[in-house]
Amino acid sequence: METQKKFYLTTPIFYPNAKLHMGHAYTTTVSDCIVRYHRDVLKEKTYFLTGSDENTQKMVDAAVRAGKEPLVFLDEIVGKFSALFRELNISYDQFIRTTDQQQHWPGAQVLWKKLVEAGDIYKKEYEGLYCVGHEAFVTEKDLVDGKCPDHGVEPQFLKEENYFFKLSRYTAEIRRRIETDELQVVPASRKGEILSFLNEGLQDVSFSRPRKSEWPATLGVPVPGDDSQVMYVWCDALSNYITALGYGQENDALYREFWPGMHVIGKDILRFHAAIWPGMLLSAGVPLPKTLLVHGFITSGGKKMSKSLGNVIDPEELLAEYGTDAVRYYLLRHVSPFEDGDITHEAFKDAYNAGLANGLGNLASRIMQLAQTHLEKGTRPEPIALPAGYAEAFDAFEIQRAADFVWDEIQFLDRKITETAPFKVIKTDVEAGKELIFKLTQDLYRVARLLSPFMPETAEKIKTAVIENKKPENLFLRKE
Ligand code: ME8
C-alpha cells in the first residue's frame, strides 16, 4: 500500500504585545488554505502549527503600559489570538507558546547544546544598537535620522557580554542550499533578495542576553549551563518549529514523522528564516526546511495601516459584518501571496458582491432551486481527477490563480444554465430537463470540493444542499 504523504506547515509565531491585525490574519489564512488543500483535497496527513513568541521585551513593555503583570497580560492577549483564529476557521493542530516549559524549553535547550557541541557558540563583549521593535541589533546604516524606519523609535545602546553564534561559518552552505532549491524560497524575487544578502557574507549573531531582573523567572529560556543569560529571542523563537514536534525530547514521534516542513512568513522576517534558522540547523545537524513561502504586506488604500491615518481595518469588524468565509475569500482571492496587497472597505464590499453574492451564492441557489423543484432526491458524486490547472496553481503556491480557477468554473456553470435552459426544456421534455438539472447539481458539488480550502464552511453547506436536494440558506446576501 502506498504510504500516505506527509505535510507540515507553520505560521510565524506572533508577538503578543497587541492584538492581531489584518496582516496576521492574512499570514494565518493563507497558511490554513494551503494546509486544507493538502489535507482535504490531496488527502495527505498534515500537521499545522501556529503560536506565540512570548519571551520578549516588547511584551513586557506593553504589559507595563497596560498596568498588568506580564504573565497575566500575556494570557489575555494569547486568548484573543485563539479567538480570532477560531473566527477565521484556522484548522491548526497545535498552538505553541514559547513560555511553555514542558513543550518548548527542553527542545530549545537541546538545540542550543548541539550548537555548543559543534563549536559554534562563544562568549563576547558586545556593544551595539538594539531595536526593540525588531527584537534585533541594528547598525547605523539601518537608521534614518537616528531612528529605526520600520518602528519610528531610536534604538537602545547596549553594552553586554553575550554568547555569540558563528553564523558566518555557514554562509556558503546556506547559499548553496538556497541556490539549488534544496531550501526553496518562494517567490523567485525573494530568493534573489536573500542570495544577494548572502553575497555580502553573514556576520556572527549575538545569541543570548543577560537575564533582566524585572523579567519573571518564567520568561526567557535559560542558556544551558549559565542561568545568568537567556536565549536571544529569535534563537528561542525559530526553534519552536521543531520543539513543537518534540525535537530533543523523549516523545519525538511528531518530529520524526513531519520534519522537515514548510514555513509561511512575511517579507519582514525573511533574513531570520533564510539565514539564521538554516545556520542553526546546519550547525545542529538537523535537516533544513523544504520551503519558505514569503508573502508581502497588507496595506489600506496603498498606505501602511496606522491609527493616525485612520485606515486601520480590523479583522474582527469585518468578520462581524461579513462572516468568516467572506473574509477568507477576500484575503485568498484578492491579495497576492507574493507581493503587497491592499484592502479597503470599498474594495471588500465590491469583491463580496461580485464574487459571493452575485457569483457563488447566486449560482448555488439557482441550481438548487431547480433541483428542489424538479428532482426527487439528492446526489453525492464520486470524486473525479483534480483539474490540472488548479493543482498546478496550488503546488506553485499561486493561491489567487487556484481561486480564479474555481470562479472560472462558477462562471462556466452560470453560462451553462443560461445556454441549456433546463427550466424551459423541462416543460416539453421532463426527462431531458431533469437530466440537465441533475448534471448541474453534480457540477456544483465538484465546485464545492475545489472551494473547500478557501471557504470550508460554505463548501460544506453546498455539499449538504446537493446531498439533501434542497436550496441552501441564503449564502451571501448582497450588501449595499
Ligand atoms: O515577526 N501584512 O511576529 P509579528 C502582512 N514573532 N503580514 C503581516 C503584516 C502586514 N502588514 N504585519 C505582520 C514576528 N504580518 C515574530 C516571528 S517566527 C519564528 C517569529 C505577518 O507578530 C507577517 O507574516 O511581528 C509577519 O512575519 C508575521 O505577521 C509575524 O508578525
Please characterize this protein's 3D structure.
It is built from 18 helices and 15 strands. The protein is of the alpha/beta class and 480 residues long. The protein folds into two domains: 291 residues, Rossmann fold (3-Layer(aba) Sandwich); 122 residues, Isoleucyl-tRNA Synthetase, Domain 1, CATH 1.10.730. The strands form four sheets. Strands 3-2-1-12-13-7 form a six-stranded parallel sheet, sandwiched between helices. Strands 5-4-6-8 form a four-stranded antiparallel sheet. Strands 9-11-10 form a three-stranded antiparallel sheet. Helix 13 runs antiparallel to helix 17. The termini are far apart.
Short description:
The protein has 480 residues and is of the alpha/beta class.
Which compounds are bound in this model? ligand ME8
Strand order of the largest sheet: 3-2-1-12-13-7
Question: Number of helical segments?
Answer: 18
CATH topology call of the largest domain: Rossmann fold
Structure keywords:
Isoleucyl-tRNA Synthetase, Domain 1, 4-stranded antiparallel sheet, elongated
Fold blueprint:
Elements lengths: L5 E9 L7 H20 L3 E8 L4 H10 L3 H18 L6 E4 L7 H13 L3 E11 L4 E3 L17 E10 L5 H9 L4 E3 L1 H12 L5 E2 L1 E3 L11 E2 L2 E6 L1 H6 L1 H4 L9 H6 L3 E5 L3 H15 L6 E5 L2 E2 L15 H8 L1 H11 L6 E2 L2 H30 L13 H8 L3 H22 L1 H7 L1 H22 L4 H13 L12
Parallel strand pairs: 1-2, 1-12, 2-3, 7-13, 12-13, 14-15
Antiparallel strand pairs: 4-5, 4-6, 6-8, 9-11, 10-11
Helix pairs in contact: 2-3, 5-6, 5-10, 6-10, 11-12, 12-13, 13-15, 13-17, 14-15, 15-17, 16-17, 17-18
The structure holds ligand ME8.
